[in-house]
Fold each of these.
Amino acid sequence: MNPVNYLFLSALLFTIGAAGVLIRRNAIVVFMCVELMLNACNLAFVTFSRMHGNLDGQIIAFFTMVVAAAEVVVGLAIIVTVYRSRHSASVDDASLMKL
Amino acid sequence: MSTMNTVHSLWTMAAEPAGKIDSPHIEYAQLSPTLIVLGAAIIGVLAEAFVPRKSRYAVQIGIALLGFAAAFAAVIALAAGGHAKEEAQIAAMGAIAVDGPALFLQGTILLVALVAVFTFAERRLDPQEHGKHVDSFAAQGSAVPGGPAEQAAVKAGFTTTEVFPLLAFAVGGMLIFPAANDLLTLFIALEVFSLPLYVLCALARRKRLMSQEAAVKYFLLGAFSSAFFLFGVALLYGYAGTVSYAGIAEVVEGTRQASDPALAQTMGNDALLLIGGAMLLMGLLFKVGAVPFHQWTPDVYQGAPTPVTGFMAAATKVAAFGALLRLLYVVLPGLRWDWRPVMWGVAIATMVIGAILAVTQTDVKRLLAYSSVAHAGFILAGVTAATPDGISSVLFYLAAYSFVTLGAFAVVTLVRDAGGEATHLSKWAGLGRRSPLVAAVFAVFLLAFAGIPLTSGFAGKFAVFKAAAEGGATPLVVIGVISSAIAAFFYVRVIVLMFFSEPKPEGPSVVIPSVLTSTAIAVGVAVTLVLGLAPQYFLDLAGDAGVFVR
């Protein structure tokens, strides 16, 4: 199978993730969409690695996974603290500082 | 089929005896500033686990100050050893560049971090709670605001001493960011300095809901932008088949062709290069707070604890502009005719929108946030110059601007009423009559922001605009000067408000700080005046440092 198809899939996943970040209102779901975008990047890395015949892309995919895990730790901590103090994880409710 | 064979041969080669793999060569001495800071951060985490709660505060301050000072000494030693000029080299198997701009920016970031430790450690501003001095950070970050757990934590006199290791980790990432010499290192450094900053934003002692809201916004938008950044890295990797700066630059300039005809379709595909480069720039422009990626700045600057805001506003900008310069000047110089018009547009929009929106603000911290957006625009004007003067003027501007920002936010922490910091502008009316010294110091910082002669702001702006004009961006300079004038209007408006209006009877009071914040503000004033009165030595220093190693 032509590896370019995986690039199209990766771009599609990235777009779905980006659209989700912009459309969804629950902070957790927004965050999941960001993770989807990161995984789309991983797919692109691995595909390019296959096309170029070097291993750089696969190594980078591992680094991305570690970064995504670290981001989950920090992100969930922040979202959960906000949920506990407001009983809502909606990004629309976070509007204390509007002009 | 040839690609299949190459991949296959890679796997079989990896199965050969380990003796044939060369172990990587790491230049520890050249990397010592970063290693020292990250080491201090790890020792700080250990201290958090093992040192008794009573003595943690002193121990953590000691570790942070020692670490930053030692790292700064290492930077000076490297610069004195010629690593900024003739000895400049690429270290750690091509991952980190040790050259003039990297060392200059690392030195600046470390000095900013040293001063930031003083503002972080300040414990005389808030009234004592249960007989204990408290700092600007929450007693227990995880406790629900106003809940029983928080009351218990406050009563027990807990403090979040974790802020010092978090600060050290952020500084470690910032030291790598402008020195990174491949896109993977750049991405990891971006995350290493962003993640601690997200946490620091959520830890304010007063107005905790606002602080947590700032952290959520910063985190979600920051993660969103770093996903774009990463996809840009992926596309550039697809374009060049490598993530090293030199390798990509070679493919952009066409000096290296695809070795395999089957790859010709992917490698050197301009669509990948342009889209990838644009996404990479989006990630970096988000970090510097340039229009149209500036929306997070006012909310995060307002909600975060003020010492954190001061550090973030100064150091993040230095690190991110360093990375932006290296990317544009080392990786994409062959693409100059494509990125210059884009950066022109971004610079113009950033200067104008930052200055105009700042005029409408009523909160000091938001005002300083929009002013930082406008300043990002002025710095971008220097970036577009694409000449050696462009590099050195941006370096000088960053050094000058970071200390003014740090000092200005330190002054904001002093003006307080019963609810904590009184950041609404109406409360600052008549401050000059009640406490002339604080108002005068703040006026010096505002004049430096406005770029009035004899302050560092003027020297920086002059250098940047001169470089931009010589680089052929005269219209940009004209717009820059006009938006400086708009910006000067609201800086002067605050000065007039402080000195020429009647103080309100129920207005805020100015707290007498301990020696820590006083030192931070004094350093800010001193750097502002020295760089304003005698800029030549530092301009020469930045000029000497302004050559990237390739």
Amino acid sequence: MTSFVKPNINLKNAKRNALGLTRHDYEGAMSTLCAGCGHDSVTACMAKAFFELSIEPHNAVKISGIGCSSKTTAYFLREAHGINTVHGRMPSVATGAAAANAGLTYIGVSGDGDSLSIGMGQFAHAIRRNVNMLYVLENNGVYGLTKGQFSASADVGSKSKKGEVNLSPPIDPVTLALSLGATFVARAFSGDREQLVPLIKAGLKHNGFGLIDIISPCVSFNDHVGSTKSYAHTYKYYHPAVHADYVPMNEEIKTSYQAGEAMPVELHDGGSIILRKIDEDYNPRDRGAAYAQITERASKGEIVTGLLYIDETQDDMAAMNRLTSRPLNTLPYDELCPGEAALADLQTLYR
Amino acid sequence: MSNAPNINDFVIKVGNVNGTGSSSANGLLMKSIFRMGVPVVGKNVFPSNIQGLPTWYEIRVTGEGYGARSGVVDMMVAMNSNTYARDIAELRPGGVLIYDSTWPRQHVLSRKDVTVLGAPFAQMCNATFSAARSRVLMKNMAYIGAVAALLDIDPDIIRGLVREMFAKKPKLVDLNMQAIALGYDYAKEHFDCPLAFRVEKMDKTAGKIMIDGNTAAGLGCVYAGATVGAWYPITPSTSLMDAFKSWCEKFRIDPKTGEHNYCIIQAEDELSAIGMVLGASWNGARSFTPTSGPGISLMSEFIGYAYYAEIPLVLFDVQRVGPSTGMPTRTQQGDVQLCAYASHGDTRHILLFPAHPGECFTMAADAFDLAERYQTPVFVLSDIDIGMNDWMVDELHWDDARQPDRGKVLNAQEIEKLDKFYRYRDPDGDGIAWRTLPGTHPKGAYFTRGSGHNADGGYTENETEYQEILDRLHRKWQGAAVHVPAPIVRPASGGKARWGIIAYGSSDCAVLEACDALAKEGLHLDYMRIRGFPFNDDVARFTEAHEQVFVVEQNRDAQMRGLMLLETEIPRAKLVSLLHYSGEPLTSHFVQNFVEAHVRKAAKTEASA
């Protein structure tokens, strides 16, 4: 298991973004995950989203913990710094990094083991702080690297590959995040790129903590009959409720949405997220109603997906701390050090 | 034992109940002596509790300017009837005990060889003040008044200090002065004032300040240019972040916009606090966390990560008594080995040992330079004695020409010139690789990992590539030996000494005083104070030059001695452990008595051989 360099093939006629970069410029090392792994689809979607948003790769930062999902930060954006931290601790490193330089785009990639067991405390507190980052949770209900133990997101009654039945209730990152005051909460499925790419774009542009819980089946240990995180099960029960599209500031909002269905949410950067209801009864602007809908549907086995809640009005961590608009890591030393004269002066207090 | 109490040479101890505001009253007493130009030492021995348990405050008046506890008590102010028995027993023969005679306790306070003075502090305060809380608080001010009269402390100085103390609440100035007068006048009227041992004005505090180590360390972080602090509250390190915050509020808020040029994050636990520091440092901001032993235990996983992935970290460990929760408000040097090798696998770290608040300031700044130069964790090992007590130290100074050592960080122009950037190569042969910061340049990107990696920064499970990195990390760490603060040697006054003594951190002043006392008896010791780890060659050389060396430590397991045996070729028999681990700050008498006993025993063995 070594990292392989992917050949960098830039086709002559490849589509270029506003920076003149192609899709290939947003790729990383060759994936070492199993063939058919849901995570590889998610990786491709993340690369595509960054490409379409024309974010310079080196102005993005990829952060992860430990697990299959956490390995994927090596597989996209080769020109971005990446940091594979320790198990369950990605949120704290992302928080510190965002404090040091609020000017970069932060994407954290984690899994259900990393986020909902060992790392649940840090996951919860990063939400409370509204750290300006996108948190991608690749959720497959199973520990892959240690060969098939249930994770905390496994549903009651779901069967392991060895035939064991899970009896403990699952932790749902979406309703958990809603209850903790998250400002951007989405659920998606690795098998639906049409839905996922725009969600990642919206999450990257959201000012604050964005969570996308992505059902991403584990082909080696949790894709069998009896598993509720398999491709077949997810295809059967997933239910898109709200579609989201990101529209940059200068782009005219398309009018193809039927009146009454499209809801624009204005973002801090001047762009907008256009919410399009697929399910008429669902309201992504009401935290309590969203929570009720999701849990009620879940009790019937339905997996509600899309941008399930957004609140663009809350301060992010930088604003809560009244941070200067200049990145802290660029402040010149002479502005930071008060100097000898001030030192002499302040010591009158101690005489 | 030391001489009888004398003018400007005695110890006052106050026994009280915590949560009654006695600590600020005692601080006032200490500072008024300091303002009379007389050196003074204060030790607050308090419980891990908010209100109602016994607390003591020891003030040593020391015209000679020693910094430690002496180990005796000449005047006891007994304000807690629950500890009367213990308090009177601690007084030296001929000492003076003052107590609140509102409730007479003759049977407990009967000791023929001490003078017992009763003053009805509670009664007087109850007659003067109406609010319940102020009656409690003012009782403390009343005993300060009585002590001031007995010790001949200048009332004008006290008044000046009270005015400063309550500058923002002028109403309280009169109230407090009234309470002080109650005690002062009562003592003048009923006791023989002043006592034979008392305070006389000197000129020995010019150029000195009284400050605690946590305040000084927080200030050092500001001067070092730290911008991110992450922490989880834990006694006794909390006041370090409180200090950093208040210094930042003074120096780092833009007066026009109100924007902060710093970010302080109270984490959910120590695991997260160190993760935040790591993230901020990796991203190029100077960042730190203050904690204590239990926090270091929790942070160990990330400390190993930072060592292996080569990320600067600055940690302040304000040590308290362990193991486990231990005695959170008592002092010890119990984390030396924990910090030296924190985390699993082969890890070694850089340690700094400040001996007083002045060094907390300078070493805080040094710690950031070392962490960034060596891209590794650096620990500043203070303790509760240094961190939370006010010490008299030389005024702090800052060299305005000093620039931070940010270490080997490539800027955009430098990266542009490279064909390709390799994170963990050693082009300069000093074991230190070049690093890049996110957002600098597309060619500067690399992947940081705690898993096996090679010199190019790629993942590896190849044995040669793995060992190459591990060996370089060791070379890098060894290189730090000449850049950590060097040991300080004070040679014996009487020529070549047979015995040496080594100490570090807050043991310093007790050892200095003990050496002086021993020299008067004709026993001369060379003294070396260790200030950093890895050890430079001076440590082994000093040991070689003596028949035996005492190693003074405030822990049970002789942790520094253990480090010396592990890291140098010093023979075991050369190092004699002198250990004090009760949780109270070390006294000079303890050191002196131990050395005397050991030397006597050695002489006896030689004579019989």
